[in-house]
Amino acid sequence: MSDQPDPILAKPVDLCCLKGSIHTGEATGTIEEIEGVPTYVAKPNADTANGNVLLYFPDAFGLHINSFLMMDAFASCGYLVLGVDYFLGDAVTKYSKTPLSDPSFDFEAWKNRHLEATEEVAARWVKGVQSKFESLSGTKFACVGYCWGARFVCSQLSQGGICKVGAIAHPSFMKESHVVSIRAPLFLSAPNTDALFAPEQRNRTAELMTSGETPFSVQVFSHVGHGFASRAYLTKPYEKWAKEQCFKSFVEWFDLWLAEA
Q: Which ranges carry the Dienelactone hydrolase domain (predicted)?
């Protein structure tokens, strides 16, 4: 084990990760299992399918209606989307839809229970995804992660990962080692003010990416908080716009670099 310090860029999940709105809508995907891990599968229409696979790493709310609708939207843009339940049915939403104000929910205990466990589940799941889909002619992998999912995107963009391009929104649990290992194009979207990902750390992330040759882009929105890209209040026009702009930017980034890969 290295004795070198590994400074934190995005802090561990905190109460801000429990804020936001639960959306409404009708999910169109299905739940399947890959290597024993529940997986939400959103399929594109045959006439718009681009032949590529998008790995979706959710926030602490796990696989629920917000992430279902987001994955369905990515599928409508041509991607076969696979969302991992690395909490194995034990996401925050199992306990409460209003965890921030629910005194019966022990967030710290939940966080500690899943920090390392999700690493093992995600690694097993990715291997299963690769085995199942990489043999398809011309298939390329992209990945997207929200909050808890950030470090998994970094891993899949590293030398040992399977993805050609990735995107992260409002990260948590992200260290310098995660960023310096990235070898494929990264898009990062964040609020200007975020208790977990302060401007100094955001600038440091850009500095680390600049020191290498890997393409990257950083998108910053004012007047939104941590979680805006996945749990925005859709009744607030600016929050809704920021969420949609983030989504649009991610899709354009994936399309650009997968065409080059």
A: 38-255
